[in-house]
Amino acid sequence: MTVTDPRTSTPAKVTPIGPNGEEVTSKVPFHMKDSLHVPAERYYSREFYDLEKEKLWSHVWQMACREEEIPDPGDFVEYEIVGKSFLLVRQNDGSVKALHNACRHRGTQLGKGSGRFPGGQIVCPFHGWRWKTDGQCSHVFGREGFSDGVLSRDEIDLPECLVDTWGGHVWINMDRDAGPLREALFPVADILDHVNVGNMRVKWWKEVVLNCNWKLAQEAFFESYHVKQTHPQLYTQHNQDDADETNRSLPEYQSFVNGHGLFQGGDAQRGSTHGNATNVLEMARVLWSGQDAMTLERDLWVMESVSGKVDPTDPQFGLATVDALFEYWESAGIPAYERRPEALRLWGGDVFMFPNYLMLPMYNNCLCYRVTPHNDDPEQCKFEVWSLTAYPEGNEPGRPESLGRFDKDDADHWGLIPRQDFSNIERMQQGIKAPSFTETRLAAKWELTISNMHEELDRRLAAEY
After folding, report:
1. Do 413 and 344 belong together in one domain?
2. What is the pLDDT of residues 57-81, one digit of tens each?
3. How many whole angstroms separate alpha carbon 13 and alpha carbon 444?
4. Are 442 and 244 a contacting pair, CB within 8 Å?
5. Which domain, by its residues, includes 365?
6. Do 164 and 190 belong to one domain?
7. Would 203 disulfide with which of 84, 303, 362, 387, CB 3.0-4.6 Å?
8. What CA–CA distance (Å, rounded) separates 44 from 22?
């Protein structure tokens, strides 16, 4: 794979750094000793969790909100991570500021959830101090009552985080000395640009709170190795005998610098290996049912029109579907990307963006996951899910709102596939605390994206800031 380094505009090496030396491991409790084992304590130790709060979340680029959540000047969204709160505010010139969400007087939070600051003023609900939406203090009630030096400009303006945008998202970094966003997202942002994720908008989004560590939750989606056992309704479409213990799905896995990784379609998924004839249309119906993400009803309509001409188990059905989808997007005025192998190989795959964001592109859609710690508890996380899609130009939806927080077993709001995953995730968190369980054991072929993420995490935790 060739990707351009944003720092030099030249082809760059994208392979991971690999296992860390003593200069890193000596500074990290429960550090990674090799690439095939992850110490169990990393998922529940308070010491390790507190080090993440200090060294990771305070110094890493992280997805804070979708751009369309703050479409107009004065619109804001609150982003919270490990007890720290920030306001993402759209400015008059269209840019975004990320402001610390605390009054400079006595610390009152200035905004909650999402909304709009009327009149271009952020007003403290306690004593009425005011700021412009760029963070400059515009009014202090009873200024005459304060001593000299207490109200100096550099003390009462709202502090800022670094902020940048990519792919329709707003990203922040609390560390004002951090490097640029595109360097941090290298090379996965370049890879996802092949499917123009920046053209997509929110179709829906919602969340669930899970009783597990944030890392454990997201690792469940770093591999498709679990599909045969966890999602048999998907695996049976590969026409593989249940007694066959060989993994026939054969996606291709890659780990990258900066802790990122992906898996994408391999030969078997193109219907050309082992003689397995995948029923592409039936697979799409199963993915759509109860999900309405990655595969949408409009995609099924296109595929069903193709099935009248080509058998869905015929390898030619996939090629005919691609033709039909691109023709449909053009006729419907839906922005499409260049039809290149780099884009099509991503369909049905999974791109992990360190430390906690995943994008799963399919057709002109994308399923996205953000996993964050919850309630200052190493064994709880907030798992947010977005369905993104490209809309006809001029018919994009308005400002999106979360559908809410729903229980992991709520069949009215979660399809069968996510409910199957949620169940496994919480059971893992309980299992790793068994007295006899000291470390996970990873498959060198299927699961090295997990160890690559942990090795990058150790480098972050050992860093001196």
Report:
1. yes
2. 999 999 999 999 999 999 999 999 9
3. 21
4. no
5. 186-462
6. no
7. 387
8. 24
